[in-house]
């Protein structure tokens, strides 16, 4: 069964705006990983945050993790049309447990 | 290309036929995972290997599904007597243990199965 949940399910913004996606999970995890998926393609790894970390940055990406609330957020700053994709979070102990993802549309 | 590769990329089969998919992980990765993704859903874990040992297979969807990794390198996923409900994207991922027990999983492009 799916244990991760991304919120919102769909997000539409203008190019240049920031996009924030949230993720919740149910069981204890070792780390949480965010992925991007373009339609019909495989998942592209974006960033991993470990359970003892609270915030991590990579380029235009900022990820936070709150283990007490079992939640994470992904912020994409200065979005581009090429960021249009589905975004998934996966809570990991050994396997990844995903939600249904957030479909992000960045309008030029 | 040193990423995870999967073959074939697309497979169309008739109900009742057997199909086999192959995954080649990143060469230095000792862990290999299989996931299935249906339309509008996130990937769902099926099974995983550490080297040649299959450490969990309880999530394989039925006894029609089996996976092998005989030499600890590439892996195959076989579905016997396919059903229309097996139509999905089958994704493979690999990771290393390294300094941490659980590291980034890198996914291949997937094999899209259509059962007619």
Features of the shown structure:
heterodimer, A: 108 residues, mainly beta, six-stranded mixed beta sheet, five-stranded antiparallel beta sheet, globular, B: 116 residues, seven-stranded mixed beta sheet, 11 strands
How is this structure best described in words?
The complex is a heterodimer of chains A (108) and B (116). Chain A is mainly β. Helix content of chain A is 0%, strand content 57%. In chain A, the strands form two sheets. In chain A, strands 2, 4, 5, 9, 10 and 11 form a six-stranded mixed β-sheet that branches. The model of chain A has no long low-confidence stretch (mean pLDDT 92). Chain B is mainly β. In chain B, 0% of the residues lie in helices and 47% in strands. At the A-B interface, strand 4, strand 5, strand 9 and strand 10 of A face strand 4, strand 5, strand 9 and strand 10 of B.
Quick summary of this structure?
The complex is a heterodimer of chains A (108) and B (116). Chain A has 108 residues and is mainly beta.
Note the topology.
The complex is a heterodimer of chains A (108) and B (116).
Chain A: E1 5-7, E2 10-14, E3 19-24, E4 31-37, E5 43-50, E6 55-58, E7 61-66, E8 71-76, E9 85-92, E10 96-98, E11 102-107
Parallel strand pairs in A: 2-11
Antiparallel strand pairs in A: 1-3, 3-8, 4-5, 4-9, 6-7, 7-8, 9-10, 9-11
Chain B: E1 5-7, E2 10-13, E3 19-24, E4 31-37, E5 44-50, E6 53-56, E7 65-68, E8 75-79, E9 88-95, E10 106-107, E11 111-115
Parallel strand pairs in B: 2-11
Antiparallel strand pairs in B: 1-3, 3-8, 4-5, 4-9, 5-6, 7-8, 9-10, 9-11
């Amino acid at each position: 069964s799916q244990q991760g949940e991304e919120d919102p399910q769909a997000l539409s913004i203008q190019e240049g705006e920031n996009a924030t996606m949230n993720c919740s999970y149910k069981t204890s995890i070792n780390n949480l990983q965010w992925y991007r998926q373009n339609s019909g393609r495989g998942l592209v790894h974006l960033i991993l945050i470990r359970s003892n970390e609270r915030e991590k940055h990579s380029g235009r990406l900022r990820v936070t993790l709150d283990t007490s609330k079992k939640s994470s957020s992904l912020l994409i700053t200065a979005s581009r049309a090429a960021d249009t994709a589905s975004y998934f979070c996966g809570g990991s102990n050994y396997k990844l447990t995903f939600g249904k993802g957030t479909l992000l549309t960045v309008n030029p | 290309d040193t990423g995870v590769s999967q073959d074939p990329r697309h497979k169309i089969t008739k109900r009742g036929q057997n199909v086999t998919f192959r995954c080649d992980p990143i060469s230095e990765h000792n862990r290999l995972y299989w996931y299935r993704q249906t339309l509008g859903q996130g990937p769902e874990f099926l099974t995983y290997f550490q080297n040649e040992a299959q450490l969990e297979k309880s999530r394989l969807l039925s006894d029609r599904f089996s996976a092998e990794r005989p030499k600890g390198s590439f892996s195959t996923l076989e579905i016997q007597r396919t059903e229309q409900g097996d139509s999905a994207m089958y994704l493979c991922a690999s990771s290393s243990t390294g300094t941490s027990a659980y590291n980034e999983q890198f996914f291949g492009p997937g094999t899209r199965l259509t059962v007619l």
